[in-house]
Design a protein that fits this description.
The chain has helices at 27-39, 47-56, 74-87, 108-116, 137-155, 171-179, 207-213, 215-223; strands spanning 3-6, 8-9, 24-25, 43-44, 64-71, 92-95, 120-123, 161-163, 184-186. It has 226 residues and is α/β, with parallel strands linked by helices. The chain has one domain (3-223): Glycoside hydrolase/deacetylase (TIM Barrel). It is globular, with a radius of gyration of 17 Å.
Length: 226
């Protein structure tokens, strides 16, 4: 099952972002990817849906996919959100609480609009720090529980899912994520296989990597009679 990772969906890549080209999709490219998923029978689910399947055996669609967006960029709201609605897809938006309400980032009312359309909001820490580089347990705890509490206070919903900035984590960091009350956490580890004992380190991948490396296997498995 693919967990796809996106950052920017925008018509133009800002000057100076050349090394981060892989993190940008134009709206046209993003729509082509959504059309590929729709045409091939994929249905979007949430991280809670995945956890319910792994922990309790609750059913998933035959070809499930999770779409996820990192950081809380304004262009996700402006360009990705309308296309998600057009194709009837949902997504999880992992936001950095220290970035919200600032230039180029989403606002709380916009997050509420996303939620009203069936999207999920997750935490991406307070400051987008590489968590495995933090030596101070109090600082690590603040990045995890502080961002969770900040969002829960303003959105009035439980924040159950988390994404590691830069994909940076360790066994100790993953344990701290679980201890902070998150049910699931997404990494940047490449892969499309998930197990119950890895809910705190779920792999995710960019669309192109998934399409080139894993889509055939997943689509073949979904087409096999059970």
């Amino acid at each position: 099952m693919p967990v796809l990772i996106y950052h920017h969906v925008a018509p133009e890549q800002p000057a100076g972002y050349e090394p981060m080209r892989a993190l940008f999709e134009t709206p046209d490219n993003f729509e082509r990817q959504l059309k590929y998923l729709k045409d091939n029978g994929y249905q979007t689910v949430s991280f809670d849906d995945l956890a319910d399947f792994l922990q309790f055996g609750l059913p998933l669609p035959g070809r499930p996919v999770i779409l996820s967006f990192d950081d809380g960029w304004q262009n996700q709201f402006d360009y990705a959100f309308p296309l998600l609605k057009k194709y009837g897809f949902t997504a999880t938006f992992f936001v950095v609480t220290g970035y919200l309400e600032h230039q180029n980032f989403m606002t709380i009312p916009q997050l509420q609009t996303l939620m009203g359309a069936g999207m999920t909001i997750g935490s991406h820490t307070c400051s987008h720090v590489a968590l495995s580089s933090i030596d101070n347990p109090s600082k690590l705890r603040e990045e995890l529980t502080g961002s969770k509490a900040w969002l829960e206070e303003r959105l009035r919903v439980p924040i159950n899912t988390f994404a590691y900035p830069y994909g940076s984590y360790s066994a100790a960091v993953a344990s701290a994520v679980e201890a902070s009350g998150y049910r699931t956490a997404r990494t940047f580890d490449i892969g499309a296989h998930h197990t119950r004992n890895r809910l705190a380190t779920l792999p995710g991948t960019l669309f192109k990597t998934y399409r080139d490396r894993y889509s055939y296997v997943v689509e073949l498995a979904a087409a096999t009679p059970r």
